Amino acid sequence: MSSTQQQFDVAVIGAGAAGMMCAAVAGQRGRRVVLIDHAAKLAEKIRISGGGRCNFTNVGAGPQNYLSQNPHFCRSALSRYTPQDFIALVKRHRIAFHEKHKGQLFCDDSSEDIIAMLKAECDAGNVAWRMPCAVEAIGKNGELFRIDTAAGEILASSVVIATGGLSIPKIGATDFAYRVARQFDLKLVATNPGLVPLTFDGRHWEPFAELAGLALPVAVETGQKKERGHFLEDLLFTHRGLSGPAILQISSYWKLSTPLTLNLVPELDVAETLIEGKGTLKKNLGNLLAQWLPGRLAEGWLKVNGVDAGARIADMPDKSLRRLGDSLNRWVILPSGSEGYRKAEVTLGGVDTRELSQQTMMATKAPGLHFIGEAVDVTGWLGGYNFQWAWASGVAAGLAV
Ligand code: FDA
């Protein structure tokens, strides 16, 4: 071994959510662990997550909340390290938290609490840090892995790749995991931005652009059969298209050239209500729609559909009322694209799970080489599910290396 060469049992590359969890677990088992990251600032993605308060898990997280070519793969890790296990860790570190909506748990104060907790767990496992430190190459040196880094060569019996996906390149996302997978002849599932705002052709969007900033609860769906997504969440109009939880959720299921179907008044059959109410509903159309929709949207909707807001429903043919009602209950729209990795919260696809053991996250073709977290083709819904996968897959590898 040369003077710049150092040997460890385990080298974890990527000190984000999954990497820190894995390093802490392996270190606390008595393994000699080194954690390497090229970033200058620790765990930027945790820091910015959940609007700075980190939605660190979801109490209901289960395989049904994840997308993957191999939907059962995540089952084992998720059942061995559950949201309750992570909550127990958070409580042990006396971090105050609250449930916000649909089982989503957030820190009361700041995401920094979660970063400090993971750092303390790594310290308890005597994890060695190399950060900021670029990784130049990975190779084999007999039975060991050799990692060439800006801080010299590292030898390790096991390597865990925890470098995440492609989302938010501005804070250090790279395709490193996919390059390593290719180097070791492992298959990849095509990647795409997920949990991302969707955009529309400028000309087609023009009439809706003036609704930017407007939010309302909707039902949204897309896709067929097994690949169908359906969510009841808030929608947000933007200058370039649509966003808000409803769109972020459905974006992970959306495919180019496939429309979305939105129900802007999910609790009501608008056409039926208008037709049946012709004799009793005295208000004009503008005022009627404003009972069910934000006023600015009611007004904009009538304008886009060429209907006079002052018209009385009693004076309108049933056919026109049906068309108007159906347009609200079944708004079929074709996004032209998405805001891409620049804005995506996650990356869909990644290392094909059929190459990995679901118990240990190790590549069956490359003994000793593990992949965890977002680098793997397991992508959670919005709402704390992605961190739960990072923790659970990190623990699975941490117990095995
Ligand atoms: P993560 O991205 O956390 O870490 C990867 C690490 O690898 C980084 O530290 C990076 O610097 C390092 N790295 C990359 N390339 C490298 C290389 N070549 N060499 C060395 N190091 C390298 N999820 C959730 O459950 N709740 C939430 O509230 C949110 N909120 C949220 C907000 C925003 C704006 C984004 C972008 C994402 C979220 N997410 C989320 C998703 C969540 O942040 C994400 O799924 C996890 O951080 C993934 O954890 P990983 O450890 O796999 O990657």
From TrEMBL:
Coiled coil: none annotated. Residues 193-346 form the RsdA/BaiN/AoA(So)-like insert domain. Residues 9-398 form the RsdA/BaiN/AoA(So)-like Rossmann fold-like domain. Its cofactor is FAD. The keyword Cytoplasm does not apply. InterPro entries: BaiN-like (IPR004792), BaiN-like_dom_sf (IPR023166), FAD/NAD-bd_sf (IPR036188), RsdA/BaiN/AoA(So)-like_dom (IPR055178), RsdA/BaiN/AoA(So)_Rossmann (IPR057661). Keywords: FAD, Flavoprotein. This is NAD(P)/FAD-dependent oxidoreductase.
